[in-house]
């Protein structure tokens, strides 16, 4: 598969924001950022040496199609981070692109940071994300309701 993970830029953040305003994407992914301005501030913070987040953009066949990042990186106490993967080009869902990108990114994260586990949240109705997490080695830990939406939490303890 022709998948490359690249460094995020300000232009990627803007494109990501615009693409993820789609109603179907909003129903499937638990976004917490409410404005483009906030997204740009968080991106700028992610460039600092002591940043608690780290991300890449996903290119497929030379086209920017989504983001993958980890956040809440804690190398001292919990030795953990969280991961998020969003392919915003809906015609590419279910093609294994996110799986390959996640496998590559997980290896990078466990090598780059002093962490032992990575967690992930997804809505219970996002069967694509649930399948992705299970395919790359995450285990379902719990199901819960937040803001009236049933969600699931997954974890992975290192990778082989």
Automatic annotation (TrEMBL):
<keyword id="KW-0808">Transferase</keyword>
<dbReference type="InterPro" id="IPR051531">
    <property type="entry name" value="N-acetyltransferase"/>
</dbReference>
<dbReference type="Pfam" id="PF13302">
    <property type="entry name" value="Acetyltransf_3"/>
</dbReference>
<dbReference type="InterPro" id="IPR000182">
    <property type="entry name" value="GNAT_dom"/>
</dbReference>
<dbReference type="GO" id="GO:0016747">
    <property type="term" value="F:acyltransferase activity, transferring groups other than amino-acyl groups"/>
</dbReference>
<protein>
    <submittedName>
        <fullName>N-acetyltransferase</fullName>
    </submittedName>
</protein>
<dbReference type="InterPro" id="IPR016181">
    <property type="entry name" value="Acyl_CoA_acyltransferase"/>
</dbReference>
<feature type="domain" description="N-acetyltransferase">
    <location>
        <begin position="14"/>
        <end position="160"/>
    </location>
</feature>
């Amino acid at each position: 598969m022709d998948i490359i993970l690249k460094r995020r830029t300000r232009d990627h953040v803007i494109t990501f924001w615009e693409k993820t305003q789609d109603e179907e994407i909003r129903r499937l992914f638990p976004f917490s950022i409410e404005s483009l301005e906030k997204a740009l501030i968080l991106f700028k913070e992610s460039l600092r040496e002591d940043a608690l987040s780290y991300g890449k953009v996903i290119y497929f066949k030379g086209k920017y199609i989504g983001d993958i990042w980890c956040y809440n990186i804690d190398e001292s106490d919990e030795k953990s981070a969280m991961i998020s993967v969003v392919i915003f080009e809906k015609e590419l869902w279910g093609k294994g692109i996110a799986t390959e990108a996640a496998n590559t990114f997980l290896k990078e994260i466990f090598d780059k940071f002093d962490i032992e586990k990575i967690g992930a949240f997804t809505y219970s109705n996002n069967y694509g994300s649930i399948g992705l997490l299970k395919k790359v080695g995450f285990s379902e830990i719990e199901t819960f309701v937040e803001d009236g939406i049933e969600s699931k939490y997954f974890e992975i303890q290192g990778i082989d």
